[in-house]
Fold this protein.
Amino acid sequence: MITLEVPSMDCATCPITVKKALERVEGVMEVDVTFENKLAVVKFDDEVTSPDVLTKATENAGFPTRVKS
């Protein structure tokens, strides 16, 4: 599981776009995006995908993310 910061979400519909982008990534099992915290929590199979692939997917959807430390 990984938490991604999504600072560019600025409206209530943004999380829908972020969630759909992450759900399309092979190996992703569960996605929870919260607008209030500007976070995306992603449960994924690390043998199938990686944090780099996840951040690239959100970036391609117009929402650059970074792994929350």
